[in-house]
Amino acid sequence: MNSLCPVWVKRKAIKEPDPNLSKYSAVLYEILAHRGITGNDKIEAFIRPTLKKLHSPQKLPNIKAATDRLFKALQKKENILIFGDYDADGIISSALLYNFLKKLDVEPDIHIPSRFEDGYDINLEFVKKINRQKKYGLIICVDCGTNSMPVMQFVNSDQCNLDIIVCDHHQPSNEVENFYSDRYIIINPKLRESIYPFKDLSGAGVTFKFIVNILRQLGDKPKENFDPRYLTNLLDLVAISTVVDVMPLIDENRIIVKKGLKVMEKTTHPGLQILLQETSCRQSNLTTYDLGFIIGPRLNAAGRLKSAQDSVDILKCDGCDIENKVKNLEKFNQKRKDVQEEILNQILEQKNIEKKIHSQKTLIEKSTSWNEGVLGIVASSIVKRYNVPALLFKEKDGILKGSGRSTDNFDLYFHLSSLRHYFKKFGGHQQACGITMEIEKYQAFKKDYIKLTSSSISDSQLKKTIKYDMDLDYSQIDENLLQQLSWLEPHGRENPRPVFKSSNCKVIKVDQLKDGRHLKIKLKQGKTNMEALFFNPDSRIKDSLSAEKVIDILYQLQLNEWNGRRTIQLVLIDVF
Question: Rounded to a whole number, what is the largest CA-CA distance in the chain?
Answer without folding.
Answer: 81
